[in-house]
Amino acid sequence: MIINELGVMPVERLILKSEIQNINLVEKLIDEVSVKYSIDSEVYGKLLLAVVEGVNNAIVHGNKLVKERDVVIEYEISDSEIYFQITDMGDGFDYTCLPDPTLPENIERTHGRGIFLMNHLADKLEFNDKGNQLKMFFRLS
């Protein structure tokens, strides 16, 4: 394992076109990362669900399924943490104003649970100001 002077792996990157079938490439990436770095099965499960949900949101909501638009997935790993950054080419959204999917008026809705789910799976979420880039942090120990 090559570790830089900050004690972390260099950033790795995957660029996808905005097509739903490319989700399988994200699943494959998570599988490969988990094996390569011996990631615990509990963390693996959280990574898989959260990153797939984030990329799905970027494809569907961010890039509006315009297949010419890219979704960029980057990750970096250290001894104690891994983060994934997902960036789409969309206009972004106001991540500070999201409806609570657990409220009675939202229970029946078929959308609106992705960020809620990611927030519960990751140890920390960060959005850029525009709302078209998400970082998810996961503790490894």
UniProtKB/TrEMBL annotation:
InterPro entries for this protein: Anti-sigma-factor_SerPK, HATPase_C_sf, HATPase_dom
Keywords from the named record: ATP-binding, Kinase, Nucleotide-binding, Serine/threonine-protein kinase, Transferase
Transmembrane regions: none
GO MF term list: ATP binding; protein serine/threonine kinase activity
Domain of life: Bacteria
Keyword Cytoplasm listed: no
CDD domains, sorted: HATPase_RsbW-like
Histidine kinase/HSP90-like ATPase domain sequence ranges: 22-136
SUPFAM superfamilies reported in the protein's UniProt record: ATPase domain of HSP90 chaperone/DNA topoisomerase II/histidine kinase (SSF55874)
Protein name as it appears in the record: ATP-binding protein
